[in-house]
Amino acid sequence: MNQFFLSELNIYPIKSLAGISLTTSILEEKGLQYDRRWMLIDQEGTFISQRKYPELALLQITLGEEQLTITHKNNPAQTISFGYGENTGQLIAVNVWGTDCQGIEVNTTVSKWFSALLQTEARLVQMPEAERRLVDPRYAPNNEVVSFADGYPCLIISQASLDGLNEKLDQAVPMDRFRPNFVFTGGEPHIEDRFDTFYIGDLLFRAVKPCSRCVMITVDQQTATKSAEPLKTLARYRTVDKKIMFGQNLIHQGSGTIRIGDELVIREWKV
């Protein structure tokens, strides 16, 4: 009988910037604490991502006691900080993959820093605590909510799925290409596709939809360079209805603490 254990726990405080690996995290209603609670927007209020600006991968984030700090990987002198609750108080209409919600600009100094870095007008916004951005109701019947993540509060991938992909590639890629919140060991490649409901520790999750992939996984998260892989190889064996699938999107019930080493216990398998 397979046993599954959590081997990675990752958050991405600012959407499309570098992630942070943790040993423990608190699961909140919108997902893991601090995960995608901020994002960059353009003049129209649409989110900015590595799809157009791959250099965002080089912006590393440090969570301090009272503030968040962003540092350019290749130029540590290029850095800026702001407080967790810091914002102008003015609501801005923003859009994430066609869903409208609201953000609050952190401050103009931070926005100007990003604008200069990207050489385009950008603003950094935070999601208000009271904002209720709903998950697609076809997959979330209980009005579950999400942060500025693409569409779902959490994403899970098995280590076996990545290992299976790397066996097919000329040059292996690390898990950070796929930006999961949870990685687990055990089972065969893509066994997460068969998960229905399961526990991580004592928290209940449901795998509601495979994660469709785009060109963002072709960005090397360490160098910000792009190539055809691994999207090209995945397309050969993971295409469903003209979409390339890798990993499972999750919704969850309740809140609590999750730790590396927690066991995943499957309650129900997909038929």
From TrEMBL:
InterPro entries (UniProt xref): MoCF_Sase_C (IPR005302), MOCOS_middle (IPR005303), Pyrv_Knase-like_insert_dom_sf (IPR011037)
GO MF annotation, one: catalytic activity
Domain MOSC as annotated: residue spans: 127-267
PANTHER family: MITOCHONDRIAL AMIDOXIME REDUCING COMPONENT 1, MOLYBDOPTERIN COFACTOR SULFURASE MOSC
Protein name as it appears in the record: Oxidoreductase
Domain of life: Bacteria
Pfam families: MOSC (PF03473), MOSC_N (PF03476)
PROSITE patterns from the UniProt entry: MOSC (PS51340)
